[in-house]
Specification:
Chain A is α+β, with helices and mostly antiparallel strands. In chain A, 54% of the residues lie in helices and 15% in strands. With 266 residues, chain B is an alpha/beta fold. The chains are: A alpha+beta (381), B alpha/beta (266).
Chain lengths: 381, 266
């Protein structure tokens, strides 16, 4: 058992930390307030390899591992959860399934520019009536002989308004249901019959782009089928297993960021003649926050390490995501409380962090869905 | 022909986090992170910019220090340098600037041919700004210090630099080979890249001892260093400055005069 970071992982943390302090922190409050997608940050992330951390160099990646990727999302999210999820949705939900399920041609054409960060990716599974219940898919893909024809609507798609490439799941044979009836496709933003719909106005992660995707007789080339016909459910579920490491890392980063600023605040704020940091009741809150953060970190790195070692990591990533998301909510709520009135106003970052934390308990499988995954791994289906 | 640049760098304690022991009057290094010296990062950045423009340029970073200075060299490689050289030996420990430049000159002689040496103006722990110029003297090379702008002619021989002084600047033309010392106005250093970090892990650093570089042992280390530190101390903090305000420049000037008169300065 080894609980220490490798030299490379240590350097990745140092690099992303510096990047986040210099490039992300100064704009985090503004882009949240303006609901502005930070294209300038995405360009810089691309330049330094932050959009292809866990992929091999020959396919455009940085040659890192999944622990380094988790550290990357964590350190970005420590300053700005919106920036963290841009990286996570792109890496886990679009580049990864093309790497894992794509043909050599698909990897050459789509994965290399995505992993280099020259293009941004997104993933479309959720529909108005189908989220974690993937079998409720109403988006249809019909085999027209020389192409596929897609019709339907996806909702809540992260990076939707700014992505160039989308991995989309659609029903190809309803009679076969979830297993065998669903297929995955690679869609380019300029495909005929494909449009970006409404942009959602959200409670948190306001600088990230969350949109509808609309397919109206969208023609998709035959060679853009991802995996085999009927393998879409497997593509989607394996993608979400990895995505949970990304979202858990985002939650961890939010919690760590909230702890950082809260400790700083307690050390400067004086009441009743002494610093808040000298008050034992508040010290106990800090101890509780720190312990939960550290426990989240260990669960996440364990899941990421298992993924690096090609072990079955699905339940591990579900536990990491469940615990880290609930920790993010717990820690940010405490952080606001410890800031008193200042925590409730937008001049201090904990207000944003608390709003940002909530989504981590919801997307890429709610906490309840994580519990279903975990329970099934313990009890059996 | 490939252009060869040597960058001299130093691993230093992050002085923004250093405290002075109030009893012993020495730097408390425990728990203080070590970093790539700021001006040296500017020196490296300028070399890397040249490599961006002329990809067959090679950048070698050289440092003298304890074994843990390898981490700083790895950071330089992760930023894009090609090669890292560490001169590490108990015999060179405690060297002052004179002895340090003897070590670096010997190591650079061992490295062989080069076109340009970039160094940082000064290190944040010693603030002497002496090693670069001393190195130039010992290698018998022309030098320009305090470089804030750098341009090289496509002939790869003629360099034009802007040298910043307290009350102005000089534009200087100089030919390769030469030594330039960088200040922070020169550029904004890049970050390491994730890919660079993983590449660096696979590169082998050159680690040389005093024997490897064939330096005269009577010219290096604490004993051979002519500099002696008599005392180090924390200066008494000055009082807070006064900000003079006013709606117009004239008001501000008047308020300044009133204050100066009140204190009998004028």
């Amino acid at each position: 058992m080894n609980f220490s970071e490798t030299k490379e992982q240590e350097f990745v943390r140092k690099m992303v930390r510096e990047f986040a302090i210099e490039e992300v922190r100064p704009i985090a409050a503004d882009i949240d307030k303006e609901h502005r997608f930070p294209t300038e940050t995405v360009e810089k992330m691309s330049k330094y390899g932050l959009l292809g951390v866990p992929f091999p160099k020959e396919l455009g990646g940085a040659g890192g591992d999944n622990v380094s990727y988790a550290i990357t999302v964590e350190e970005l999210s420590r300053e700005c959860a919106s920036t963290g999820v841009i990286c996570s949705a792109h890496t886990s939900l679009c580049v990864w399934p093309i790497w894992a399920w794509g043909t050599d041609e698909q990897k050459q054409k789509y994965m290399i520019p995505l992993a280099k960060g020259e293009k941004l990716g997104a993933f479309g599974l959720t529909e108005p009536n189908a989220g974690s219940d993937a079998g409720g898919q109403q988006t249809r893909a019909v085999d027209m002989g020389d192409h596929w024809l897609l019709n339907g609507t996806k909702v809540f798609i992260t990076n939707g308004g700014f992505a160039d490439v989308f991995v989309i799941v659609a029903m190809t044979d309803k009679s076969k249901g979830t297993r065998g009836g669903i297929s995955a496709f690679i869609i380019e933003k300029d495909f005929e019959g494909f449009a970006i719909g409404k942009t959602e106005d959200k409670m948190g992660i306001c600088a990230s782009s969350t949109t509808e995707l609309i397919f109206q007789n969208c023609k998709v080339p035959k060679e853009n089928l991802l995996g085999k016909v009927g393998e879409g459910f497997k593509v989607a579920m394996s993608t979400l297993d990895g995505g949970r490491i990304g979202i858990a890392s985002q939650a961890l980063g939010i919690a760590q960021g909230a702890l950082d600023v809260t400790v700083e605040y307690l050390k400067t704020r004086k009441q009743f003649g002494k610093k808040l940091s000298k008050m034992q009741a508040l010290q106990f809150d800090i101890a509780e926050m720190k312990t939960r953060i550290e426990a989240s970190r260990l669960l996440i790195y364990k899941a990421a390490d298992m993924k690096d070692k090609h072990l079955a990591y699905g339940p591990a990533s579900a536990m990491a995501k469940l615990f880290a998301a609930e920790t993010a909510m717990y820690v940010t709520t405490k952080a606001v409380q410890l800031h008193g009135g200042y925590g409730f106003i937008k001049d201090y970052p904990v207000e944003r962090m608390m709003r940002d934390a909530k989504i981590t308990e919801i997307y890429e499988g709610t906490s309840e869905v994580q519990k279903m995954v975990i329970a099934a791994s313990v009890i059996g289906k | 022909m490939a252009f060869k640049i040597i960058v001299c760098a130093k691993q230093v304690p992050d002085t923004s986090e250093v405290k002075i022991d109030p009893v012993k009057n020495t730097i408390m290094r425990e728990g203080v992170p070590s970093i790539l010296n700021h001006d040296d990062a500017n020196a490296l950045e300028e070399a890397l910019k040249m490599k961006d423009q002329y990809p067959d340029t090679t950048v070698t970073v050289i440092t003298m220090g304890p074994p843990q200075a390898k981490d700083m060299l790895l950071e330089c490689l992760a930023m894009g340098a090609d090669e890292g050289v560490l001169v590490s030996d108990r015999a060179v420990g405690g060297s002052d600037t004179w002895a340090t430049s003897n070590v670096l000159a010997a190591a650079i002689n061992k490295l062989g041919e080069f076109d340009l040496i970039f160094a940082g103006r000064q290190a944040i722990d010693g603030d002497t700004a002496q090693v670069g110029p001393q190195l130039a003297e010992k290698l018998d090379l022309p030098q320009v210090t305090y470089v804030a702008e750098f341009k090289i002619d496509p002939n790869m021989k003629d360099i034009t630099v802007k040298r910043v002084l307290e009350d102005g600047y000089e534009m200087i033309k100089i030919k390769t080979p030469c030594i330039l010392t960088a200040i922070n106005e020169l550029n904004v250093p890049r970050y390491m890249s994730i890919g660079g970090i993983y590449d660096a892990a696979n590169k082998e650093l050159k680690v040389w001892n005093a024997k490897d570089i064939a330096v005269d042992l009577n010219t290096v280390g604490l004993e051979a260093s002519p500099t002696n530190v008599f005392r180090s101390f924390t200066p008494v903090p000055k009082g807070k400055g006064m900000m003079i305000e006013g709606d117009t420049q004239k008001d501000i000037a008047q308020n300044l005069l009133i204050n100066l008169k009140a204190k009998h300065v004028i």
